[in-house]
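Deliverable D2.4 — example input (structure tokens):
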């Protein structure tokens, strides 16, 4: 009964690996249930998909800790804006002390993206105390005013309509903003709504507004109202950011490089399989099946966690395949030594995995530490390399130590697997 169960486990593992590989690379569609193939679900990096790279420089005299705090705040605001507009999956990093680098894969309308990200978005409500009438397109230097509140007092913003049915921006203020707005509207006069120093609307406060709700109207199109609403929700940049570098990367070069990298990986993997099978015979064949499962599993994990696949990431993936093969080589060399000492195949397999374990863990842990260091201190492509390397190391240890061992041990239920000639290589 046990022998039959072991044989069943062996074939179930083979079936699971085959199904996993098929679904990963081809997808699955059963009725209303659909699983996308990895080529459709994995996110591609800037160097593969193309897009735009832009570097902004902060215009400030701040230094040290104060500057670092400002740059982190600006980075957070820019990230929020990109999320609000649904532009892409960004890679945002601080370069040096006063610069921010933004990578936007797959962006088609480059100028729109740059306008959204770099706009300062300093929103102010000013009560005019000037005798002259305040008009849109004026600047706040053109009239006398009292400060009422800023964009920091806005709790939420949405697209709505003004009294004439035209697109407008609705605002909901927080408690302090509600009180300040009530006092300003109670005093009467024009409430100038100013964005980045420019008046975009200047309604007359005919009565006090106590509920903390306001509407910005200003001859907006629906798209303009939507953009302004998103900018307000995303927050204002703490300092002015000047665009100092812009690079537009076409997808053709990246895709060509990826295709060549993938082709190289496939050829390399095929050569590895030939070596394993030719040199280690049955264990090499089993290890090759594990490598197929490894490749499928690592791509599924990257897709599930939203990792972006870059050219350096592919390099990290190929390197981790080498690490997985290295673990198998250590185990199989130990297996040959145990068989030479006259042990049975089952006993030799158990001893080989047990005694090779420490060496495998030591080698992989040191490489994993290097990956963690690269991820924490690297930028851009270095992070992509580190992510795939770390995921690959963890998955390779699992496939080498658990999957390969399970197939070899349970495969002994098959009579043909007992021949020592199949293991000596």
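Example output (designed residues):
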């Amino acid at each position: 009964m046990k022998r039959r169960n072991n044989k069943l486990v062996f074939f179930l593992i083979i079936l699971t690996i085959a199904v996993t590989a098929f679904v990963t690379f081809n997808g699955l569609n059963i009725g209303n249930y659909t699983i996308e193939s990895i080529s459709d679900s994995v996110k591609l990096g800037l160097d593969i998909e193309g897009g735009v790279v832009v570097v902004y420089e902060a215009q400030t005299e701040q230094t040290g800790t104060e500057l670092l705090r400002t740059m982190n705040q600006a980075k957070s605001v820019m990230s929020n804006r990109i999320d609000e507009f649904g532009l892409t999956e960004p890679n945002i990093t601080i370069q040096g002390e006063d610069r921010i680098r933004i990578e936007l894969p797959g962006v088609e309308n480059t100028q729109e993206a740059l306008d959204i990200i770099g706009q300062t978005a300093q929103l102010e409500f000013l009560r005019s105390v000037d005798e002259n009438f305040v008009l849109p397109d004026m600047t706040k230097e053109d009239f006398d005013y009292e400060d009422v509140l800023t964009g920091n007092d806005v709790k939420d913003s949405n697209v709505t309509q003004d009294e004439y049915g035209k697109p407008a921006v609705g605002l909901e203020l927080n408690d302090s903003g509600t009180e300040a707005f009530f006092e300003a509207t109670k005093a009467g006069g024009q409430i100038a709504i100013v964005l980045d120093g420019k008046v975009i609307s200047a309604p007359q406060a005919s009565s006090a507004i106590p509920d903390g709700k306001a509407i910005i109207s200003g001859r907006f199109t629906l798209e303009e109202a939507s953009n302004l609403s998103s900018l307000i929700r995303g927050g204002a940049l703490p300092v002015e950011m000047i665009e100092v570098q812009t690079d537009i990367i076409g997808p053709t070069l990246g895709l060509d490089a990826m295709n060549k990298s993938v082709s190289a990986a496939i050829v390399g993997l095929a050569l590895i399989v030939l070596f394993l099978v030719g040199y280690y015979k049955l264990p090499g064949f089993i290890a090759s099946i594990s490598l197929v499962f490894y490749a499928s599993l690592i791509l599924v994990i990257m897709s599930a966690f939203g990792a972006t696949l870059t050219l350096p990431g592919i390099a990290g993936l190929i390197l981790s395949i080498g690490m997985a093969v290295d673990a198998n080589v250590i185990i199989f060399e130990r297996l040959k030594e145990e068989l030479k000492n006259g042990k049975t195949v089952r006993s030799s397999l158990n001893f080989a995995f047990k005694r090779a374990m420490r060496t495998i863990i030591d080698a992989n842990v040191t490489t994993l530490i290097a990956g963690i260091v690269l991820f924490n201190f690297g930028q851009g492509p270095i992070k992509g390399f580190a992510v795939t390397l770390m995921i690959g190391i963890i998955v390779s240890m699992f496939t080498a130590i658990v999957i390969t061992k399970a197939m070899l041990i349970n495969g002994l239920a098959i009579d043909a697997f007992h021949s020592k000639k199949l293991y000596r290589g």
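The chain has three domains: 2-42+250-424, 51-118, 123-234.
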